[in-house]
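In this section we turn from sequence analysis to structure. A common task in structural bioinformatics is to predict how a protein folds when a small molecule is present, because the ligand can shape the pocket around it. The inputs are simple: the amino acid sequence and a SMILES string for the ligand, here magnesium ion. Study the lines below before reading on.
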Amino acid sequence: MKQDFDFSSIIDDLGGGRLLAKNLSQFTNTVLNEKTVYSWKQQGIPDKWKPSIIKLLIKVGANIPNNFMPPGMNINNFQDNFSKNTELLNKYDNFDDSDVSKKQLQLFYEKMLYLRRFEERVGQLYGLGLIGGFCHLYIGQEAVSVGMEAAINKDDSVITGYRCHAHLISRGASPYKLLCELMGKGDGISKGKGGSMHMFDPKNNFWGGHGIVGAQVPIGTGIAFASKYLDKSSLSLIYFGDGAANQGQVYESYNMASLWRLPIIFCIENNQYGMGTSIKRASAGTDLSKHGESFGIPGYAVNGMNPISVYLAALKAVKWVRDGNGPIILEMKTYRYRGHSMSDPAKYRTREEVQKMREEQDPIEFIKKKLIDLEIYNEDKLKSIDDKIRSEISGLAEKATNSISTSEKYLYTDVLSENYDE
Ligand SMILES: Cc1ncc(C[n+]2csc(CCOP(=O)(O)OP(=O)(O)O)c2C)c(N)n1
Ligand SMILES: [Mg+2]
């Protein structure tokens, strides 16, 4: 029989008859003889096997010749949303270093340093007994919040978990009000009633501060739904950790977000540890950027210790979402230097590991070196910026320490939503 089509190249693309027979058997749960598959080289592939073979070709990224399609079918019948979206996303241009201005580099340095010095001061105040309750510091992860914030707008919404001080400051919240909140003062951003884990700043579109691991993911999804429903152009940036990434509510949110094409950036801050366990011990799949696969949500992993990489990745993600393509996942590979919270025996990692990360991957040191190499700032200028930040934070900490504690009169306010404006 004369073939109008070269079936052998398809079989070769899929690793030859033996591998194809094995893969097809697994894929279709049918026992398929290797000899049969080899015979297709001469006799042609029966229509009955074509759909499965097309799916395998898509999986390995091989070309599917048009005339290989069974009648009435085209490639879209076989491609799932994930492949379609990933293919589309790959066609988007990547942003590069030319998209980062000198001014932006200066801001990255100043903003990251501010977050670091703020958190260091919070750690000291905690040690002095001026802050009580749970408290989780962001030291080490600064590049994520600063890089992401630089790529979004003020009307976009941000929501995160309990490690939230940095995200608030990046949004533009008052550091003084944060310090007051931490110390249970009336001037606190949640009137001193929320503490470290429960800070809100609606004016800056910051929606918490959530102590329940992962709770912010469905809430942030709802915020994105509202934005779409009300025909607004704002997106919802949802941060959560590697420890939250396997939760059921996260997957339910992925499903709805993708189904309704909601404007969401799911930003997973993979600092490699949950409360006392490494991701390698806790997660069956550690490629978190691909967790949206079965929902058709594309994603990519980013060096979360480099604010430039974070910023450039975020620009692309923002464009993707604003173009109406629906959600995207960014997995930030980052690291926290301090314990999970203020009490952490840290038995799950070695001191040497932490030291190595600090010495080799610190985001602030990285950007500092860049500023010097590009002759944007010299050592003296860098030091004067640091001194200015330290003294500003010291002044605010002193003012907050001396401010008035929260009042009993707030005990029953802000409990119901109608009291929101009180
Ligand atoms: C539903 C729920 N389960 C458990 C906890 C206790 N807990 C607090 S933080 C945390 C680990 C979360 O780790 P991850 O998501 O990686 O965030 P990270 O602390 O690293 O920023 C756990 C288990 C909680 N607060 N809520
Ligand atoms: Mg973590």
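The radius of gyration is 26 Å. As an exercise, try to locate the residues that line the magnesium ion site and compare them with your own expectations.
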